[in-house]
Each structure stands twice: as C-alpha cells, then as structure tokens.
Specification:
The chain is α/β, with parallel strands linked by helices. Helices cover 40% and strands 20% of the residues. It has a five-stranded parallel sheet, with helices on both faces. A five-stranded mixed sheet has the order 7-8-9-11-10, sandwiched between helices. Strands 14-16-17-19-18 form a five-stranded mixed β-barrel. Strand 10 and strand 11 form a beta hairpin. The protein starts with a strand and ends with a strand. The relative contact order is 0.09.
Length: 563
C-alpha cells in the first residue's frame, strides 16, 4: 500500500479562510484542497440547495424532448419507458414511468433481458413496442450508440427520446431528442449526471414548462440518489444537491419499495455508502439473477404488503447472487494460479458456464487480490461477453478502444466497461490487452494507493471538528471521505486481533500526553505486531462514531498502519 499526501495549500490562505468561516484550520485546509476556497462555494457545499440546480433547457434537445412528450400526451399515444437492467437503468424507468403516469394513463415499461437481449436498446424491445401500437419510446441510461436500432424503429413509425450519460460515438442516433451532457455539442454546465439524473432533468423541464418549481419533484429523488451511489458518478455540483436531497427522502419518507428493502436495516440514518452496499446490490440482483422488471415493479409499487412480497423475492435473488459470486471468484483465482499469470499487468479470465449476471462483481473482487485492470469473460449465446474493471488512474475504456480489432462491441466508462467478441478472438484479445496495458500503465498505478488529505494531531479531533466534518457528506468520487494520518501513535496496551479468524485489529491509541481514542481496523489483523510493546507507529484513517452500550464516541477507522 502506498500513501500519497495531498499537496498542502499555503498557510496564509488556510488561516484567512479558517478565520472567515470560523472553522478549525484543518477543516479550511480540506475545503481548499477540494476547490472550495470562497464563502459562496462553502455555502453551496455545506448547504446544498435546489436553487443550485441548472435550468434543464440548457441541455441540447431538451425543448424537443418536452415538445414530443407533450404531443404524445395530447394525442393519446402509447408511450414505452425503456431502460437497462442495472440500478441506474431500473431507477430511471421507475422515475420516468411513475412521473408520466401522473399525466397520462398509457405508459408501459420495458427492461431488456440481460441474457436474451443484452445491454441497451434491442430489436426485441422495438418489436414489442410495434406489436403494442407504441409510437414513442423514452430510452434511459442507454441509446446514445443505438444508431441502427433507432433507424429501425423510425421505419416502423416509432420515435425515440434518448436520455443517456455514456460517451457517444462519432455519430448521434436520429432520434427526436438525444439528451446526453457528454455530447460534444451539448453546452449543459454539468457533465457528470447518471442516466437517472438525465431522466430527472427531463421531468424537471416538463414541470418547469408548466410553471411548477423543482421542489414538487423531491419525492423522486430517492431514486436519483440510489442511481448516483450505484453508478459511482462524482458527487460534486448538481449530483451533490440531488444526492443530498435524495438521501433525506430515503431517511424520512422513502417510496414503498425502498422502505420494504431497508426495513430490516438497523441504522438511524442511511448514508450514500449504505445505499451502495445495501439498496443497490438488491436492486441489481433482480436483473442479474432473474429479470430487471422485478426491480422496476418494486420501485413503483405503492401497496406495502405487495412491496414486501417483491422485496423478499429480491432478497432471495441477492442471496443466490452472493453464493455465485463467491464460487466464481474462487474458480477465477484458481485459473490465474494454474495459468501462472500472477505477475501479468492485467487479469483476463474465461469460463463458459460462469453466470453472466455476476461477472462484473467478480471482476471487482479480482482487483482486490491482484490490483490491475481486469476482465471476466463468459459464454453468451454464440459470443463471449465480459465485464471490465480498472484501477484508480487507468482508463480501461481507452485501452479497450486500442484492442477494437478483436472486439465486436463495447461501451462504458473510464473504470468499468462491458464488451462482446467472437470466441476465436479471445486469445488474440487477451494478448493485445496485456500488451496495451503493459506499455501504457504507470507501474505505480498497480499498487493500491491511500490518498491522505491531512496530517492530524489526536488533540485536533474535537467534537466541533467532527461535527463540521460530518457535513462534508454525501461522499463519493470528487468528494471522498477525508483520510488523515497521525504519527508517533502508541497503543495503550489493549490492542488485539478480533473477529472469527482474528482478521480485524482493535486498539486505543494516544500521542505522548494527548487524549486517548479508540481505533478499529477491518482486515488489518496481520498488522497486530506493529502495535505490540507500545512501539510507535503511524496510521492512515478516517473518522466515524462508535456506539457501545448506548455511549457514542469518535473513533479512528484505520485504513493502514506503518512503522
């Protein structure tokens, strides 16, 4: 593990800003490091406001999208809301369909089958629309590359409105409207919305045109916050506002389906991390194991007993998903060892019977063991399909682009992508991918990194310091949980390994005559000897609250220890 300390801003700047805001200097340092260096920026950061959301009509084609939806409603057309089977796609479909149903009765939903149809807009879906006299499809979290499919729909008399956030190709589909902030010709000020976020901008535009304020749409933000967390988009700018209000909805008045999912979670307040690790995997499990429509059904259901029924079915899918991902991860690790590929720059593994629904999770698991760009392949019909995951700082999408002679199709982001190729291309692709990554990756990116925001003395950690720090949430890319470092720590003598296999580390630490603070290090049991016999050590950690016997205290959540 390598520790990298963020650059420290100038002392005069930190002191002046701390004085201006009446905050501790270390907090001022953290803010300046995050680009928050004026009173107004600090106010927007600490007090996210719906007034900070941009005008949706700044997005290219928004006027066309609103006009076409209004026409469909006026002419009593059948509308199909179409989205992908992952969390961003299913929350988008739930958001758009439940909103449109408040204006118009003839709204159907469609999620492609992960196995029969694959990712994105499908010919099967368009044929379904045609067979059901549907003349308008609103596609969410997909569609920006569906050139031929949109043209096919047009021939059948079906219009498309596309709400996507993926990078477009050289050509834009001939849809009525293509809403995508990543379009070269779109001047929308915030580029990092998720698919559900783009869908939200469309319903915001619909409301705005009727002269209604955005706050009428706050009940939909639990879906948007869930998508933002699950899709790992930056929690900056507009996403911060949407996530902040969405979390508030999840914690105070969530929709029936989300309530059914979280009713057994014993927590006072859910954070974006809980959304990512509790809500998102369950919504995802439906599309991975059975069908994404179960997730949409849950997220739009208003009857609590029925929602509980669907949620318990989804709980079953999630348990099955966990078993599968455990078994496949073990098989993949064995394959790497058998092929003696432990020292490559990439991981590329394939077995034809691996479950397509969990290969993305397995790819993430493998990067925890061998920290390098990773692809997990399985058989999908006549083709091979893969999920790709990357390491911090390396663009796997670009690397795949350089292997395109072996690939039939691919799409995704810098850190996660999906692709298909013909089976006879597998070995050629595997070698080319290793060659591309090997020749372009900085060796340091292959060692996991802890980025440290600031060095703290233990006595800096006061209740006021922690109270302000908590307001940095919601955390995510672009606004990660602050990580601190303290040197010359010693254990007070109670340090021990805990947990089933003594995998975790628990101790209380102090610096010379400082206060004593409790610390927990999950997965750090192997570092126990570093703290024995009151030897001084340094720690990288974040801060959280430990609750024990009804008493709450600030504790260090250890990330790593060094001598």
């Amino acid at each position: 593990m390598r520790w990298t300390l963020k650059p420290i801003p100038e002392t005069e700047k930190i002191n002046a800003f701390a004085k201006q805001l009446s905050i501790p200097e270390k907090i001022a340092q953290l803010l300046i490091q995050r680009g928050i260096d004026t009173y107004d920026k600090a106010k927007a950061f600490f007090r996210p406001s719906l007034d900070d959301l941009h005008d949706p009509f700044l997005m290219k084609d928004m006027d066309k999208a609103v006009a076409r939806l209004n026409l469909a409603i006026a002419q009593n057309e059948n509308i199909l809301v179409y989205g992908d089977y992952d969390v961003d796609g299913t929350t988008s479909v739930a958001l758009m369909s439940s909103y449109l149903q408040t204006l118009h009765p003839q709204v159907a939903t469609y999620i492609p089958d992960r196995y029969a149809e694959g990712y994105g807009v499908s010919y099967t879906g368009i044929d379904y629309a045609h067979d059901n006299d549907i003349t308008l499809i609103v596609a969410l979290d997909c569609g920006v590359k569906a050139i031929e499919k949109v043209a096919y729909a047009k021939k059948l008399g079906i219009d498309f409105i596309i709400c996507d956030h993926h990078r477009p190709g050289a050509e834009i589909p001939e849809a009525v409207a293509v809403l995508d902030p990543k379009r070269e010709d779109c001047e929308y000020p915030y580029k990092e919305l998720c698919g559900c976020g783009v869908g939200f901008k469309l319903i915001q535009a619909m409301e705005q045109e009727k002269g209604l304020p955005v706050k009428t749409l706050v009940p939909y933000l639990d879906l948007v916050a869930t998508a933002i967390g699950a899709d790992i988009v930056p929690i900056t700018g507009e996403n911060r506002v949407l996530a902040f209000y969405g979390l508030d909805v999840i914690n105070t008045l969530p929709r029936t389906g989300i309530q059914a999912l979280i009713e057994n979670v014993n927590k006072d307040e859910l954070t974006i991390t809980d959304v990512v690790f509790i809500i998102a995997p369950r919504i995802n499990a439906a599309g991975r194991i059975k069908h994404g429509l179960h997730a949409v059904e849950l997220l739009t259901e208003q009857d609590y007993d029925r929602a509980q029924e669907i949620a318990s079915g989804i709980e079953g899918f999630n348990a099955e998903r966990k078993d599968l991902d455990k078994v496949i991860t073990q098989e993949a690790l064995l394959q790497i060892e058998t092929n003696k590929e432990e020292n490559r720059k990439t991981t590329v593994v394939f077995q034809e019977n691996w479950h397509k629904g969990v290969i993305g999770i397995v790819a993430s698991r493998l990067t925890e063991t061998y920290y390098r760009p990773t692809l997990v392949f399985t058989k999908s019909g006549e083709k091979l399909a893969a999920s790709a995951r990357s390491v911090k700082g390396f663009d796997v999408y670009d690397a795949l682009e350089q292997c395109s002679e072996h690939i039939e199709q691919f799409g995704g982001h810098k850190y996660a992508a999906g692709l298909t190729l013909a089976e006879h291309q597998y070995e050629g692709f595997k070698n080319k991918f290793e060659e591309v990554v090997g020749s372009s990756i900085d060796e340091r990116l292959l060692i996991p990194e802890i980025t440290i925001d600031a060095e703290l003395e233990l006595d800096d950690i006061t209740p006021k310091f922690y109270r302000i720090l908590r307001q940095f949430a919601p955390y995510g890319p672009g606004n990660m949980t602050p990580v601190f470092m303290s040197k010359n720590l010693t254990d007070t003598g109670f340090g021990k390994c805990v947990g089933a296999d003594e995998t975790h580390l628990k101790c209380s630490v102090k610096q010379k005559d400082s206060q004593t603070i409790g610390a927990i290090g999950f997965g750090l049991g192997s570092k126990c000897d570093l703290i024995q016999h009151r030897k001084p050590f340094k720690a990288a950690y974040s801060l959280d609250i430990n609750e024990w016997n009804g008493t709450k205290s600030i504790q260090l959540k250890l990330r790593d220890l060094q001598e």
